[in-house]
Amino acid sequence: MSKHQSSNQSSDKEVYFYQAHGPMITSGGKNWCFSCGHVMLSNTVSRWATDKGCLNDLHPSYSRMVKKAGGRRGNNS
Ligand SMILES: [Zn+2]
Description:
Blueprint: E1 24-27, E2 30-33, E3 39-40, H1 44-52, H2 62-71
Zinc ion binds next to loops.
């Protein structure tokens, strides 16, 4: 008589947790993650995503970061 009470087995929504990027691929002078396809650039959002790992798109701040990034298309470098 074991009542199985799983904590969060009902997955109607995926939850963010840290999963490091990798394996890393280098192509065209860029480093990108083979697992999630994230390209490591030197802009704020990319670095944020690099820091948050492969599941960065599940992170609560993700939409905010993307919005921020999408705001300005032009490059100022
Ligand atoms: Zn990744």
